[in-house]
Design a protein that fits this description.
This protein has 12 helices and 10 strands. It is of the alpha+beta class and 392 residues long.
């Protein structure tokens, strides 16, 4: 792969940066300049839509720009660098839209893709359950056919932003025959989150923020036209969807501002009359972090180039996710160690460094290597599908 961007790609990068500078100057959106948290703004998403920055990699006949996932990576790399409030459309752009494009009926394409491109609707992922985290084949939420509907019963957990999104992308069990392989017993269904029978309960994370939720389904009726793809083919479909999730630049960039803060800290804070950056051990540690960051970024762009060619394998996406999220967890640990007690103070504390951003990152870091598939599960995928190692 040629790691240099083309003239067209460099122009796209500049266009994105010009847009970000303009929108920041307006001062009406919550950019995460000193926070490790991502924000949501429907207004900002609508402005992105006007510029054609949503669905960059989608085919033109589906409302997209018809470019590629390398170009999409360029757009979102710059957005993450700026801490832009992209949460409103992020999942739609990353995997829901591609899932509908690949597997959805014409009805679903006509119903949802235009609204996604315009930033009018948002989605949450109804995957994990109390007894089924990274191993989604253990899910037990059922969808039973009844006339022209599915009746859904069960529980999902760790559902990000279920309380703010209009629709959910649900993995449900549609064949309960114990003799049928669990990998052939699931389907994907789009659910209106305002449907009667859905109860959403907040889960407050360690930072004290409400982003996660429990979602309960009690005889929730969903028309069959919202089935995505083929009945009982959902597990195979979702594995394709997860390749989009695991190969994204976000798995490296969501903690970027902590790296910037750390570099600023060691340059400006002194010990014994010298900047911390003069300490050989600290300098070596920071250099190693930068090397790993650059390696991760190059690999992600390599993976997206394979995605553009239709050559991406599941284990290649898994490698990128394992490397990048492990790096993010390491970054949070190193930053908190070097900055000491003040680096562990939360926002609003008068002595907190960088508005408590490092403390937030440290508390959030366990989720980095779990969300989208735990490191342990992904290493199994790499071993079995990539290295062809026999399972015991």
């Amino acid at each position: 792969m040629d790691f240099r961007f083309s003239k067209e790609q460099l122009k796209l990068k500049q266009d994105v940066n010009d847009f970000i500078k303009k929108e920041k100057k307006r001062g009406i959106y919550p950019f995460a300049d000193d926070s490790g948290l991502g924000y949501m703004s429907k207004e900002f998403t609508k402005e992105m839509a006007k510029k054609g920055f949503i669905g960059v990699a989608w085919p033109k006949e589906c409302g997209g720009q018809g470019l590629g996932y390398v170009e999409r990576g360029i757009v979102f790399e710059e957005m993450f660098k700026a801490g832009a409030p992209i949460g409103q459309h992020y999942l739609s752009d990353r995997q829901i839209g591609p899932g509908i494009i690949h597997f959805g009926s014409q009805f679903l394409k006509d119903e949802f893709l235009p609204k996604m491109i315009q930033g009018d609707i948002s989605f949450c992922l109804l995957f994990s359950e109390p007894d089924a985290g990274s191993d989604l084949a253990r899910c037990t939420t059922t969808a039973v056919e009844e006339n022209d509907c599915f009746i859904i019963n069960g529980q999902k957990v760790w559902t990000s932003h279920a309380h703010t999104t209009e629709f959910g992308w649900a993995l449900v069990k549609t064949d309960t025959d114990p003799n049928v392989s669990r990998y052939n017993s699931f389907s994907e269904i789009i659910v209106d989150m305002k449907t009667p029978g859905i109860t959403i309960r907040p889960i407050i994370n360690m930072i004290g923020e409400h982003s996660f939720n429990e979602v309960f389904f009690d005889n929730v009726k969903v028309p069959k036209k919202y089935l995505v793809g083929k009945l009982n083919n959902g597990f195979k479909q979702i594995m394709k969807n997860l390749d989009y999730e695991r190969s994204g630049i976000d798995r490296l960039m969501q903690n970027l501002r902590v790296k910037d803060a750390l570099i600023n800290y060691v340059k400006t804070v002194e010990k014994d009359g010298k900047p911390l950056s003069k300490d050989p051990l600290i300098r070596d540690t920071i250099a190693q972090l930068e090397i790993e960051f650059q390696v991760g970024k190059k690999y992600i762009y390599y993976v997206t180039s394979l995605l553009d060619k239709g050559e991406l394998q599941t284990h290649e996406a898994a490698i990128g996710k394992v490397f990048c999220t492990s790096y993010e967890a390491k970054l949070a640990d190193v930053a908190s160690s070097i900055m000491g007690v003040n680096g562990l103070l939360m926002p609003k504390s008068p002595k907190a460094l960088f508005n408590g951003m490092v403390a937030e990152s440290y508390l959030a870091s366990p989720s980095f290597t779990i969300q989208g598939g735990s490191v342990e599960v992904l290493k199994t995928i790499i071993g079995k599908r990539g290295l062809k190692l026999a399972a015991k």
